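Re: that backbone. Tokens:
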């Protein structure tokens, strides 16, 4: 492990006393007590208090896609904050107008939702999904007041606010909070298309929308078959059910295309899709994209947000979209994804009883383990690599998209050593 420069020592001393204050945070996270992130640079994170350097394969849970402390993002943050941070949605601001137009035009240019026309800007993934659910319900209710229900899928994750939680199946997240919004049905995405179709068509007068992640992220990095999504969209279109793709984790270049659904033929494109996480590279901003059919169901006053579309967040997102919405950048994501995947497959050959699958697209990759890899995550951290789990027994690799080949190699060497230490 690298020794840190002495210039960071005074800051480290100040930060050290911060750890003593951890008791003032509500009990919703179990964090390691021996780790305090004080700064970052591309795919590296530093703990100046404990004098440690880490390779970060988590990117703040698929957020800092252009790397930590990205100089372009930092410059825009600094410049825009001196110009205008917030002005509310009572008035237009140029950055928000530019961003909405850019999302629509880049979406079309890079093979995403072909009929995308409008954007609602907000602040987090869960909020983007709230907007999507409300828009779908409004569309359904206008056709028939009973058409309010939502179809969602087992093993999916859509957020923690009451609406987004209502369409998230995991009982651990739901049951402590009692009654959630009614009318939600959870189907199994792996069921035959005919089973899913029968359910949707038999309840078509009660179902307003269907929400699905093209790649289930938190659930364990499970890409959904293109055929399944094509079939689902067809059934939904036949039954006036609005299709929502949650691209909060798998979108914004993570799969090697701007949007994960850009891998799909046009007939599987959604009516609504949502983005957050990497959209602001760490600045909280999110977006809900819709076609004219959805927008026609909306009126002034139907939905709102104080901070959404603020000039600071939009200026940052304009920059992030310019960098990620670029063919060469996306090709690099694919190349690095292949590098990481092939190295993980080699490791799987060495430990076939423990690593049972390696799957994903671009730089959202899951390595499935035969048992929950808790010890492995800890061992990797001790040796200078940050990784996260997904689902029950998947190790999730979602590094910054700007990670260098060297950083991939360094991180994988630590990972391989940790696998050997735990399983050899
Ligand atoms: C697919 C998906 N949807 C929604 C969310 C919620 O986003 P946020 O935490 O920004 O509210 C997440 C977060 O992990 C996610 O992965």
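Recovered sequence:
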């Amino acid at each position: 492990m690298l020794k840190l420069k002495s210039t960071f020592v005074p800051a480290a001393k100040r930060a050290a006393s911060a750890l003593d204050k951890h008791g003032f945070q509500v009990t919703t996270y179990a964090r390691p007590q021996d780790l305090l992130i004080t700064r970052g640079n591309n795919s590296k994170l530093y703990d100046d208090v404990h004098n440690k350097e880490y390779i970060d394969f988590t990117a703040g849970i698929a957020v800092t896609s252009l790397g930590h402390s990205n100089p372009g993002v930092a410059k825009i943050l600094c410049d825009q904050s001196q110009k205008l941070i917030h002005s509310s949605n009572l008035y237009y601001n140029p950055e928000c107008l530019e961003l909405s137009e850019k999302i629509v035009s880049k979406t079309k240019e890079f093979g995403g939702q072909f009929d995308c026309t409008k954007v609602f800007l907000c602040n987090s993934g869960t909020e983007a999904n709230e907007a999507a659910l409300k828009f779908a319900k409004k569309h359904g209710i206008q056709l028939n007041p009973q058409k309010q229900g939502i179809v969602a899928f087992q093993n999916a994750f859509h957020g923690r606010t009451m609406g987004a939680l209502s369409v998230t199946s995991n009982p651990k997240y739901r049951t402590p909070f009692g009654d959630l919004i009614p009318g939600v049905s959870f189907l199994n995405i792996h069921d035959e298309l005919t089973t899913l179709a029968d359910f949707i068509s038999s309840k078509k007068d009660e179902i307003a929308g269907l929400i699905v992640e093209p790649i289930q992220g938190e659930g364990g990095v499970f890409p959904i078959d293109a055929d399944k999504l094509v079939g689902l969209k067809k059934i939904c279109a036949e039954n006036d059910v609005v299709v929502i793709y949650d691209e909060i984790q798998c979108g914004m270049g993570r799969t090697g295309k701007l949007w994960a659904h850009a891998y799909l033929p046009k007939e599987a494109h959604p009516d609504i899709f949502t983005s957050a996480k990497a959209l602001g590279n760490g600045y909280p901003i999110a977006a809900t994209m819709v076609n004219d059919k959805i927008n026609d169901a909306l009126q002034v006053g139907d939905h709102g947000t104080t901070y959404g579309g603020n000039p600071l967040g939009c200026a940052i997102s304009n920059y992030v979209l310019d960098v990620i919405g670029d063919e060469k950048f996306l090709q690099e994501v694919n190349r690095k994804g292949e590098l990481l995947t092939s190295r993980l497959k080699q490791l799987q050959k060495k430990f076939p009883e423990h690593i049972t699958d390696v799957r994903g697209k671009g730089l959202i990759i899951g390595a499935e383990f035969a048992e929950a890899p808790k010890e492995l995550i800890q061992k990797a951290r001790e040796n200078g690599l940050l990784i996260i789990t997904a689902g029950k027994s998947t190790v999730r690799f979602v590094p910054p998209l700007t990670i260098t080949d060297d950083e991939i190699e360094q991180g994988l060497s630590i990972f391989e050593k940790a696998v050997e230490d735990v399983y050899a």
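The chain is about 40% helix and 20% strand. The two ends are 23 Å apart (CA to CA).
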